[in-house]
Amino acid sequence: MGFYQFKRKLIVNTTINDLWNFIATPANLKRITPEYMGFDITSEDLPEKMYEGMIISYQVSPVFGLKTTWVTEITKLKEKQYFIDEQRIGPYKMWHHQHFIEPSERGVLMTDIVSYQPPFGILGNVANTLLIRKKLIEIFEFRTKALQRIFEK
Question: Where are the alpha helices (DSSP H) in 24-128?
């Protein structure tokens, strides 16, 4: 059973307020997720802003176009500083994603730390080496470009 961490830092050319307002709006996640992921929020009556304890359900197609349900909970949130989402139902044995933002000389430093454990024991470890880690890198590269495009000044 492998346990992995993926970290990404990004400078976004905007203010803390503007970036927080964007990332704390669950509907915006689709705007920064590659289209091939088939990402759709399935939660009904989704509030505009996230809050601690919020449950969000999605449909995603992470590999081979196969749809799967992913349910996350916002377990911690400190406005304009960070939030943490954890998988409750989904493709991983464990998923814990920390999102931090802080002022920077060139805008806002955004730091993501994803701690995860693939399913299926040793097969999950092989899948991480061959596929999962590469997909995470690809998704976060897309997210970087999307955020830079959204916040271009």
Answer: 121-127
Strands (E), the chain: 4-12, 40-41, 55-60, 68-78, 82-89, 94-104, 107-117
Residue 80: name the closest of 55, 96, 99, 54 by CA: 99
Confirm if 59 and 42 have CB atoms less than 8 A apart.
Answer: yes
CA distance 153 to 133: 32
Q: Tell me the C-alpha distance between 28 and 61, whole Å.
A: 18
Could you give the domains of the chain? Answer: 4-150 (3.30.530.20)
Q: Give the C-alpha separation, 96 to 86, whole Å.
A: 5
How much is the pTM?
0.92
Q: What is the mean pLDDT of residues 71-97?
A: 97
Question: How many alpha carbons fall within 13 Å on the CB side of residue 72?
Answer: 23
**pLDDT at 153 (0 to 100):** 64
